[in-house]
Design a protein that fits this description.
The chain is an alpha+beta fold and 129 residues long. Helix content is 34%, strand content 25%. The longest helix has 14 residues. The relative contact order is 0.18.
């Protein structure tokens, strides 16, 4: 549903990390990224938030099916990079509580380079060592 409310978009950030079992926390806000302006919607008792990224970084997602519905969600590496990108912009520490075995460091680094930000690249390298 998140992909239909605000398109084009894909579910990412902490929600996708939780979905893939990368972080231990349960995330209730459905977090996504889009190439359009940052937005937030409340509908059907759920919160859907969208963060804007540049078009060159709008990749790294796949179609998943759950309970008869299809949705577009970031793979674990892209969700990790997207999350750390926005944490960096907000002055927050990188995600540190994660199951590193569920993240391919080389793939995550390729995604980080799409943002053209040396600090993000360094965060990804350091966190996944």
């Amino acid at each position: 549903m998140a992909n239909k409310i605000y398109a084009p978009s894909y579910v990412s950030l902490e929600f996708a990390l939780s979905y893939h079992g990368v972080i231990p926390e349960t995330v209730y806000e459905i977090t996504s990224v889009a190439v359009k302006a940052t937005r937030r919607f409340e509908t059907l008792g759920k919160i859907f938030s969208y963060r804007k990224i540049k078009k060159s970084a709008f990749t790294g997602y796949e179609i998943q099916k759950q309970k008869g519905f299809s949705f577009i969600i970031a793979d674990p590496e892209k969700a990790f990079v997207d999350s750390n990108y926005f944490r960096m912009l907000g002055g927050l520490k990188p995600i540190s509580r994660l199951d590193k075995e569920k993240i391919n460091p080389e793939k995550a680094l390729r995604y980080a380079k799409l943002f053209g930000n040396s600090k993000l690249i360094s965060i990804v390298k350091t966190t996944l060592q």
